[in-house]
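Researcher: Watch the backbone:
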Amino acid sequence: MKSIIGRISEVNKLEYVLKSNKPELIAIHGRRRIGKTFLIRNFFKKQFVFEFSGTYQTSLKQQLKNFHLMLSKKHKTSELPTDWFEAFYQLSDYLNNLKSKEKKVIFLDEFPWLDTRKSNFLAAFDHFWNSYASTRSDLIVVICGSAASYMIKNIIQNKGGLHNRITEQIRLAPFNLLETEQLLKKNKVKLTRYDILQLYMAIGGVPHYIEKVIPGESVAQAIDRLCFEKNGFLRTEFSAIFSSLFDQYENHEHIIRVLASVRKGFTRSELLAKIKLKSGGTLSKTLSELEASGFIEKYLPYKGNKDALFRLTDEYSLFYIKFIEKSNPTTSENWLKIRTNNAYKVWTGFTFETICIKHIEQIKEGLKIRGIYSANGSWVSKQKETNTQIDLLIDRDDQVINLCEMKFSNQGFTIDKKTTENMIEKINIFKTETKTNKSIFLTFITTFGLKKNSYSNQIVQNELSMDALFTSL
């Protein structure tokens, strides 16, 4: 358990399952390299009685052979199973011979890869659960998969024999900033929080990516090695992500690229016009799968705006599209040089905003308002000529709205006369259009805090530095 970093809510669910007096069927899903297998193996290592993993694009015959070999290590079976029904019967026979009354865990990893064409795997598993495993109060069956299309359609939203059979569902998300810091410290990587923030902006909170950072490297060196060298691990990762997760993955990648082109995000109708997919099922399914896998988020607009905005929230995908795929590994181009161009400044501003929004609970904690009911969202002025947008506002029940302004900088941020005038105008437009009678608290969230001057004293009610984003909840 000490090896598990973060994952507090997930561990609480697993602890509840371990103490229950009924059979449990757990479905865990999330993008590849997110740590699903690591979590289950480390939490249940004392309870494992059988573990088996599917193999990508492997024949039914070979999958059955692999299953038989794994089961043979635990239990002498007479013959190689001819189908999955027989395979699960052999597993049941093995379980019947276990005399202990303690909880027993069966872990089927990469579950979608086992359900090959004409294999009847899902039907066989359905039969195994409903006719056998569900009768055993000492059994915990964990099914795990990266392929979001499959897990959502065939497991989470199953309309057949597995309908409402899942007792716990876990969608594993990327690490937040604090968990990233903890993993780096565990691996003896010593970086400041500003460095960790820069690293997170480039590769996100995927644990497997973070594990690639080597002690003694600067952030620039790590990013160069992983992203810009010819054989860098993250130079080729993007092409494999979507094909391994989704059916018709070209649609998913296309949406990601379209969303990477804008800062504010797109509404559903705007996306439909851009990508030329059929309205209805195809687009809805694709957006739902991307959202469930943590690549995009749907931000509900502040009241008065009708359409939700879809924004790209996966840091690595944006970094790849903006910088990695445009770079030439045969030249001397590196991250330190790229950081001098204007595209870098635009990217840091957008990415820092996105990270702040993802850490909204930490921001509320920093503002000491987590105990106050509130709703957060974005807002875009109906007067298009003003180009006024608020990426994050927190509408509180105590008659206050925090209008959040997020600024990335390598030093304390200075509010000047122009910034002051722009913020006053933004607040006035917001008040006029929304007709709110609540107090507006202008809240600055920056890397190193604000440099105090007459302008900051004039307009700012609250300020937080990046340390607030690393808060433990």
